[in-house]
């Protein structure tokens, strides 16, 4: 089975061909990072314009690198939501046009399901499975009892982890996106500022990162008032320690409570070196299999969309030409 995946939900224009749901044949990602750095973040209209310019080229490149003709494909999988509506529509319309022109079925994929299925490109999923999703817009613990079934057991009550990274980076004067920059500084640091941990209620799997963000802002403000010098690396290290400790502790607790066979991490913040090391150590201690994809499959890409799309294709699911962008699409409502 060959599936073409298309992803345009945010700021990466991406297309990929996947064989049998687990083998990457081609994986093209056109990033808009330079233009975002000029504006300090993603501007929806500019993101859409980039997608329009790139989408045809990216699809053509994914096919030519795969060495496949369109008619050798079995279906086109595209991100249906959540994301920026204008950005989503460019991928969806490209997918519709491509599917119609080549007589292929179209499959709509939830972007976060895609992040989770990036793991399927590395090793087969085993259920029950616990997924820690940490991305620019989401921080969730999801229990999967089967392919396509997603039960939300915890989520952020305010900022997503990636959002917190980006905001704290901005406070520290680091370039967008902030995650990689903070990660690097944290690793170079010889000391760490002590920041609070947001545990919330004892039995809650929910998260909160806005208090931590405020703590960083207050720390900087107070120190500057006193004429002290803020050392970005020390702030980065302290912030990262707080995020990583809470994410690791809650994920481990949930994995034990739900007695899962496999734990996976997904989403852009799963690229974080500190988080990867902490989760790997915690689960190795407990003898619970833990996996996280290589960094290029943690951040947005179309291989993950094609992988999730293949699972749906095998399950007999098909979309139709009435497909629309669904900016606020929730994972649980989309679950089987
Ligand atoms: P969503 O997937 O929730 O719709 P998104 O697609 O914008 O949001 P991703 O592309 O999955 O999010 O991830 C981007 C986020 O990951 C950014 O907030 C970025 O700062 C963060 N990120 C990337 N690399 C790292 C890293 N090494 N450490 C921490 N955060 C990182
Ligand atoms: Mg992105
Ligand atoms: Fe994403």
UniProtKB/TrEMBL annotation:
Sites where the protein binds substrate: 133-137, 166, 179, 183, 272
Principal location: cytoplasm
Keyword Iron appears in the UniProt entry: yes
Reactions listed under catalytic activity: L-threonylcarbamoyladenylate + adenosine(37) in tRNA = N(6)-L-threonylcarbamoyladenosine(37) in tRNA + AMP + H(+)
Cofactor note: Binds 1 Fe(2+) ion per subunit.
Subcellular location: Cytoplasm
Molecular function via GO: tRNA N(6)-L-threonylcarbamoyladenine synthase activity
Obligatory cofactor(s): Fe(2+)
EC code: 2.3.1.234
CDD domains per UniProt: ASKHA_NBD_TsaD_bac
Top-level lineage group: Bacteria
Domain (Gcp-like) ranges: 23-306
List of residues binding Fe cation: 111, 115, 300
Keyword tags: Acyltransferase, Cytoplasm, Iron, Metal-binding, Transferase, tRNA processing
Pfam families assigned to the protein according to its UniProt record, in alphabetical order: TsaD (PF00814)
Family to which the UniProt record says this protein belongs: Belongs to the KAE1 / TsaD family.
Function according to Swiss-Prot or TrEMBL: Required for the formation of a threonylcarbamoyl group on adenosine at position 37 (t(6)A37) in tRNAs that read codons beginning with adenine. Is involved in the transfer of the threonylcarbamoyl moiety of threonylcarbamoyl-AMP (TC-AMP) to the N6 group of A37, together with TsaE and TsaB. TsaD likely plays a direct catalytic role in this reaction.
Name by which UniProt lists this protein: tRNA N6-adenosine threonylcarbamoyltransferase
Organism: Sporosarcina highlanderae
Gene this protein is translated from: tsaD
């Amino acid at each position: 089975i060959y599936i073409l995946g298309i992803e345009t939900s945010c700021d990466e224009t991406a297309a990929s061909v996947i064989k049998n749901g687990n083998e990457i044949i081609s994986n093209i990602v056109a990033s808009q990072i330079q233009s975002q750095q000029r504006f300090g973040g993603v501007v929806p209209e500019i993101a859409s314009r980039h997608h329009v310019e790139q989408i045809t080229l990216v699809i053509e490149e994914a096919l030519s690198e795969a060495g496949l003709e369109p008619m050798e494909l079995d279906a086109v999988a595209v991100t249906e939501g959540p994301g920026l509506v204008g950005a989503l529509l460019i991928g969806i319309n490209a997918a519709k046009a491509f599917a119609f022109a080549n007589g292929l079925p179209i499959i709509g994929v939830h972007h976060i399901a895609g992040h989770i299925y990036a793991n399927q490109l590395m090793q087969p999923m085993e259920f029950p499975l616990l997924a820690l999703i940490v991305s620019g817009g989401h921080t969730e613990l999801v229990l999967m009892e089967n392919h396509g079934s997603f039960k939300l057991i915890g989520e952020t009550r305010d900022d997503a982890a990636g959002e917190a990274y980006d905001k704290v980076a901005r406070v520290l004067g680091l370039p967008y996106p902030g995650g990689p920059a903070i990660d690097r500084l944290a690793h170079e640091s010889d000391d760490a500022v002590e920041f609070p941990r947001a545990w919330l209620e004892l039995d809650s799997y929910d998260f909160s990162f806005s208090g931590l963000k405020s703590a960083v802002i207050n720390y900087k403000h107070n120190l500057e008032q006193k004429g002290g010098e803020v050392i970005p690396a020390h702030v980065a290290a302290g912030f990262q320690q707080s995020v990583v400790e809470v994410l690791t502790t809650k994920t481990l607790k949930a994995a034990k409570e739900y007695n899962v066979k496999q734990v996976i991490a997904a989403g852009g913040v799963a690229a974080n070196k500190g988080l990867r090391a902490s989760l790997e150590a915690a689960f190795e201690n407990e003898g619970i299999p833990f996996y996280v994809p290589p960094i290029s499959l943690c951040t947005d890409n179309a291989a993950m969309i094609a992988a999730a799309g293949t699972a749906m294709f095998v399950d007999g699911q098909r979309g139709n030409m009435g497909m629309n962008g669904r900016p606020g699409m929730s994972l649980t409502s989309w679950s089987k």
